[in-house]
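ARCHIVE CARD
SHELF: 3
SLOT: left
DATA:
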Amino acid sequence: MIPDLLFFTFRVLAVQNTSKILEGSAKFAALIRGMRKKLRANDISDYQMAVADLRQLDPNMPDLDWAIVSKFRPRLETPAQWQAIRPFVISVVLMTQPRDFNPVRTSMTILTRYIAWVWATTGAELRFERIFTQRFLDAFVEIGIADRSPAYRFDVYRRIAVLIEKQTDSRLKRIPEPEPSDKMVPYTAGEIARFQSWALGQNSDRRRHNAYSILALCGGAGLSAAELIDTRVEHLTNDGVHTTVSVQGKRPRIIPIASAWLPALAKAVDGRLDGYLFHGNRGEEYPPRLVQGYLSEQKWDLRVSAARLRLTWIIQQFENDLPLAVLKEVCGFKNFASVDRYMHLIAARSTSDFFEQVAGSAVSR
């Protein structure tokens, strides 16, 4: 693995040096200026027509999705680079048959960057079996997107690995899912208060249902994005005292929803008697991406995060002084070691405050 990384590193440096030389030429500068000018309508039409024959690779793709593919213009080193790889990129994207704006745009973005990097760095022939290999994927994640977050690199690796496995008989290794970032902190009370206006401001019933379900179940019951995706209206129960959710997935459990979030839950359900609380196409290989994609489209000054809402709920449970075994159960922790990652976020408390309990002269909760 080390020799491979050294090889790719030297190749990347060579490509970067070549780019700097080209940058200095007047011809290249003129090309860049031309690309930045506003395109005329017939320019866009010609640009789309250049790849029109590729649509037969996925004839059932809706017109709006094809428009995203055929109009896509990435920022690469040179326009010539995109012109060279564009038909191949589109043919690979159509293999995955993505649907709807976010999946289509994401596939075009990720696969363009991967193919462009492998082709420019190695000179590999633009054929699926040449470009999409374990060796190139490892190198791309280690070098090509080394500046991106561990979560992003994990997602890119997983997407491309799944594509390779579906198109070939090979079985690729998987990289471990990254742990939650230590930089993530709970939302403040003021930030939480603002989320109601965010959810209310969504421009359709489906989007409002999605927004309120994230708030009610991630913020009010500590569900992860994966658990939220699996939750149906039928999994909610009210016993006259508490409203509970029966969590599905790897760590099934029953959790009471915090009373402060019950109004959000009511708006998420919105009179429905059955069906998933969060709307979306669950045909994807990694369904939690539906939540990530929905939130990434939000244009709001305060970033809404399902993981951070869950983190906020977990810290609240620590502050409620729940017994460790109960804490592990309600939070869905795999083991007690999972508690360690949250310790730096818990407010410090004096040991002397608990002397009576330790000595046995006071009844502990």
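SLOT: right
DATA:
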Amino acid sequence: MKTSDMHYLKKAGFGFSACAAILLSSCETPFYIHTQVNPDLSVRRTCYSDSSLIPEQTPPRLRMDFSQPNPVHVKHLETDSLIGFYGESIPVNMKINTDYARIEDAKPFFRSVPPDGNPMFEPKEQLGKRFKWFYTYYTYHGTIRQIEGLPVPLSDFLSAEEQSVFFGNAPLPQGWIGVESYEYLDELNTKFVQWYNKSLFETNFAILYSLADTSLRKRMLADKDIIYNQLKSNEIGNNDELADFCREWDARWKKDETTSLYRTREAEADSLYQEKTKIIRYFSYVFVYRMDLPGKIVESNALRFEEGHPVWKVDGYRLLISNLQMQATSRKANIWAFIASFILLIGIPILCLKRKKRKARPTAL
């Protein structure tokens, strides 16, 4: 990624857009989480990743968390090690695993210091078990919460139906030809860019407004719509840096007032930037969860399976409009129940037949 691109992503109030997605995809840190569930619901969890891609920004730093209930085993893999990552092979050089008596005790292998509230590192998971004579059913339910705190609701630009299509939760209308699908998606992308720019505008406005005195705040509120409307809302990242944003106001008022304010309060402004740009770091990570339940999967909301086991992909874009739910149910045959049933089915008639024969035998004189 170019330095100018990284500078833009760090300075922007958010990082969600089709264009930002392309930029971020080149610097994502992958985590492959493989969970193996035992019949007693104890689990072994293994994480594969590439340590060279774990960001070292300050702050926060992503650190391995060894405060697990059981020992954590770390193994460095060969440089050419690959793992299937939701349809593509990616290089990994690190394998981490540990055991848990129950999945509710599981903790992320990594944490941000200081904490930044990334929901992808805080899944809520449950395992269940139901006995039904011939079979035992195992259920898994995981929830990763929606990203909260967006400056502008997506619904201001995209309807619920459009959001579902744009983020892959719903298919395009059936019967459409390629041109129709392209035009529809292009329209949704334009709306998404407009939402992104409005979010960026509101973020920069809030920062500048918090630094201004009462007089300047009144003028900012009076001219807010004028400044917004003169920006090109269909072009991604207009005035993404606060210094550029200030120049728009200076040009409107024909004096170097907001730029001077920014320079005077730069340390405070940078602190506000650090807080308001934390959400963009969420998009630097992508997770794949694989869940191996005992027996055979009979139901799951996963869209992909590996060796018969459900797999879910989790990233910031999938968490923009709702919580992400991971659900699966498996069924394991109870062999002893089949054997016991066979014995009962065969044995009871035999016993009844023997008893009947004994009753029919003549009594000795």
